[in-house]
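Sync notes, pocket subgroup
Present: LS, DG
LS reminded everyone that the earlier model was apo-only. Rerun requested with NAP included. Inputs:
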Amino acid sequence: MRIVIIGSGNVACHLIQAFCKTNATLFVHARNATALDELKSEFPSVTILSDFNLTKTDADLVLISVKDNALNAVFQQYTYAPKTLVAHTSGTQIIENTGFHQNAGVFYPLQTFSKASIVNWKNTPMLIEASSEEGIQKLEQAAALLQAPYFETNAEQRKYIHLTAVLTSNFTNHLLGKAAEILKEHVVDYHILQPLVEATVKKAFAKHPFEVQTGPALRNDTSTINKHLSLLQSDTLLQKIYTDLTESIQKTSNLDTNNE
Ligand SMILES: NC(=O)c1ccc[n+]([C@@H]2O[C@H](COP(=O)([O-])OP(=O)(O)OC[C@H]3O[C@@H](n4cnc5c(N)ncnc54)[C@H](OP(=O)(O)O)[C@@H]3O)[C@@H](O)[C@H]2O)c1
């Protein structure tokens, strides 16, 4: 399979690293010359492209992995052969103005990527979308090269998958960061929370999350809730998050707090 990757950020670099280990023929184009030099020395088998005409690569697939707000401008900068499927890696975007190249799709890895971290592709669901069966097959083939499980979705489903990914991954991570800061202030290593957090996630996927909810909000333990809110006095935003989540847990479990 002949694949062009556009971009040199977190996702692009992990894709390049992973496709380099397969029998795919890999080309890369990006605006960041320093990043391209680094990629060339790390992955000598990759061909670095120097112009925007991709027709010469005879590519089956072009993967655009750039910042969401640059996607459509970047898409329109290149010339593609008609048979080439052009897909992006965003959870939220669509390729617009496909007038000059309609063979477009999505190859969205439902995972969190940082350059320094290791990616387990076998544990990275690839959400794929394309307007033709041939396009879907190309994306399936690319996912199979990465040994990643793949799921055909549509733009509407991807919107909600991305929303729930933010709720469960980004927000959870932010709360973990806030917890680490609080514990550091009180000279406690936040890893003390690790068994609890891991057990919570494990249970939430073994059962339905609402079935295994615990804590003062569910018990409507007003005395503990008020103590916690006073401990958060110096961080009014986190105090608000605590109050809002408490209310959401209570509403979800149909607790009538006015009767307490
Ligand atoms: N990070 C994640 O966890 C994750 C997970 C799933 C999907 N995604 C999606 O994958 C895509 C890339 O994300 P990322 O985290 O890899 O981003 P990133 O690390 O911030 O890298 C963004 C890339 O876009 C390039 N870029 C930005 N504006 C550009 C422009 N106007 N023209 C050309 N190139 C431009 C940057 O080039 P410079 O270096 O020159 O700025 C860089 O190569 C996004 O659609 C994102 O939503 C990300």
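DG: Residues 7-12, 30-32, 35, 65-68, 70, 73-74, 89-91, 108-109, 112-113 surround NAP (CB under 6 Å).
LS: The beta strands are 2-6, 25-29, 47-48, 61-64, 85-88, 104-109, 126-130, 150-152.
Action: DG to write up.
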